[in-house]
Amino acid sequence: MKKDIRISCSRKNLKVVRDFVNDYLTTYDLSELQLNQIVLAVDEVVANLIIHANAEDESRSLCLSIDFANHVVDIAIEDSSPVAYRPSTFREPDLNEHVRLAKKGGVGMALVNRIMDSVEFTTSGALNICRLHKRVS
Amino acid sequence: MKITQQATDTTLTLILDGELDASSSVILDGELAKPDVLEYQKILIDCQRLNYISSAGLGVFISHLQRLQEANVKLIFFNMQEKVHNVFEILGLDALMTIVPTQAEAAAF
Predict the structure, then answer these.
(1) What is the pLDDT of residues A105-126, one digit of tens each?
(2) Residue A102: which of B66, B87, B91 has the nearest Cβ?
(3) Looking at the predicted structure, is the pLDDT value of residue A88 above 90?
(4) Cβ separation A95–B87 shorter than 8 A
(5) CATH 3.30.565.10 is right for the domain spanning A3-135
(6) Residue B6 — very low, low, confident or very high, per pLDDT cuts 50/70/90?
(7) What is the 3-state secondary structure (H, E, C) of chain A?
(8) How far from chain centre, in Å, is Cα B13?
(9) pTM of the predicted model, to two decimals?
(10) ipTM for the complex?
(11) Which run of H or E residues covers position B77?
């Protein structure tokens, strides 16, 4: 059964989102690693939307919905930031370069792309939607 | 995230308890950024009660690794839960960081 949650754009709500996804998926028979990976992928996308797209403006919000059916997890995250993420800007991180330059960020979307089977970003009018899809065994 | 410190003359152990995400990683970053960290030979990270890590947590370790290496300070993780180790593996960080099973192995490294 599909469920959804709306949160304000505060990084304190990352824990709220992780608990929501974890609680939803715990009712299904996923391994601990699979469960943690999906929670992580959602956390990474939501963190990017809160911190980068919405500049931690708590007057803004985003909505997350999750559905599990036939061994497939589908997640949609919607926000209305004027700054939409452009997947074409993604570069696989060079970890040695990150270490050399002491970079703190820039590896989150690599995790998302490696964990999920598909990751889509679309914009429809003022609404940005990120769709995450994964088949689990 | 709660961080407890144990120090000897040569070793600083940071015991992490909780979840390391984009909100809580600021605390760990502050601890590793302190100048006296470079006075130790080893920084041991006890991950037994680290239940979750996101890219923000990984980023803290990535961003301090070169500074520690240049000061000849070893950074060693131990007691890591499988689900946390898996996140290091997905990114390939397990090849760049020193991760050992037990505190004894970390101390002997």
Answers:
(1) 999 999 999 999 999 999 999 9
(2) B66
(3) no
(4) no
(5) yes
(6) very high
(7) CCEEEEEECCHHHHHHHHHHHHHHHHCCCCCHHHHHHHHHHHHHHHHHHHHHHCCCCCCCEEEEEEEEECCEEEEEEEECCCCCCCHHHCCCCCHHHHHHCCCCCCCHHHHHHHHCCEEEEEEECCEEEEEEEEECC
(8) 9
(9) 0.96
(10) 0.94
(11) strand B74-78
The Cα of A33 is separated from the nearest Cα of chain B by a number of Å equal to 5
Q: Where are the domains of chain A?
A: 3-135
Contact yes or no for A107 and B59 at CB 8 A = yes
Q: What's the number of domains chain B is made of?
A: 1
Structural domain range at position B83: 2-108
Q: What is the CATH number of the domain that holds B43?
A: 3.30.750.24
* CA distances, B68 to each of B7, B73, B106 (Å): 17, 5, 16
Tell me if A11 and B64 make a contact (CB, 8 A cut-off): no
Asked if residue A28 has pLDDT above 90, the reply is yes
Chain B positions contacting chain A at CB under 8 Å are: 19, 21-23, 29, 52, 54-56, 58-60, 62-67, 82-83, 86-87, 90-93, 96
